[in-house]
Design goal:
Shape: globular
Helix content: 25-40%
Structural class: alpha/beta
Strand order of the largest sheet: 6-7-8-3-9-10
Oligomer: single chain
Order of helices and strands: EEEHEEHEHHHEHEHEEHH
Length: 257
């Protein structure tokens, strides 16, 4: 189990998070939703151990996260931040290989890199310079790095901050399918998402944040309501309402087998 209990995080006396609970278990996907500034990315960073809460604590396997050595923690959780800047002219394969554990033999690590690049539809990109890729391609390279880290670890959890940013529709669906595959293989997945349709499509549980507080949690069909959308975003919308013009829902889209 990977759990946050009564998390509070303050900056200059202002509460960014206030009493937030979150529980992540193997085999499940938890998606955090909410407006800009709700504290979603901060919560993920605290879960990852990148920031320390000013109140409450995070437990991984019943041990406080502060008790974990960095190398041991890296084998248990892999993190995809919202943005990553790579300033040196690394090859794509070198960036992905950063996710490999030193315990993994070099030949096996190379195979994991190749497998991960194929998984994110970048099989022929290994010798490309990372900085020459489009934003969406770079995002997929970083997701491949996270996959290699998870595959090199021990029952690893994926912590993903807006993993679908910059991606076209087919690759958004691909990333969600990979997240689901990881969960079905025994891992746990925590992701921050802005698209409520995608969140409802992929998550076993949704956690809705506003102003640093958890205002709803549960299965998507219980959380995504007209009332919640109004409370979160100040927008009046009809769940399952049909617009007059053309529209497409990701739930109706399918990738080739």
């Amino acid at each position: 189990m990977y759990a946050a209990r009564a998390i509070r995080y303050e900056v200059r006396g202002r509460a960014i998070l206030d009493g937030v609970d979150l529980r992540l278990t193997p085999g499940k996907i938890v998606a955090v939703v909410g407006p800009n500034g709700a504290g979603k990315s901060t919560l993920l960073k605290i879960m990852a151990g990148e920031r320390r809460a000013t109140g409450g604590n995070v437990l991984l396997d019943d041990r406080d996260l502060t008790e974990w050595k960095p190398a041991d923690l890296a084998r248990r959780r892999a993190v995809l931040p919202q943005s990553i800047e790579v300033v040196f002219p690394f090859l794509v394969s070198e960036v992905v290989a950063l996710g490999s554990s030193q315990r993994v033999p070099r030949s096996e690590a190379a195979a994991l890199v190749s497998r991960a690049l194929s998984a994110v539809d970048l099989a022929d990109f290994g010798r490309r310079v990372y900085g020459t890729l489009s934003g969406g391609e770079q995002q997929r390279v970083q997701f491949a790095r996270v996959l290699v880290q998870a595959w090199s670890g021990e029952g690893a959890y994926l912590l993903l901050d807006e993993p679908n940013a910059s991606l076209d529709l087919s690759h958004q669906l691909l990333i969600l399918r990979l997240a689901r595959t990881h969960a079905e293989s025994g891992g746990g997945v925590l992701m921050v998402l802005h698209d409520l349709n995608l969140a409802a499509m992929v998550a076993d549980e949704l956690i809705a944040l506003k102003d640093g507080c958890r205002i709803a949690a549960g299965p998507p069909e219980h959380v995504i309501t007209d009332q919640l959308i109004a409370a979160l975003y100040g927008v009046h919308a009809s769940v399952r309402g049909v617009p007059d013009g053309p529209f497409i829902l990701p739930q109706t889209a399918r990738l080739p087998a």
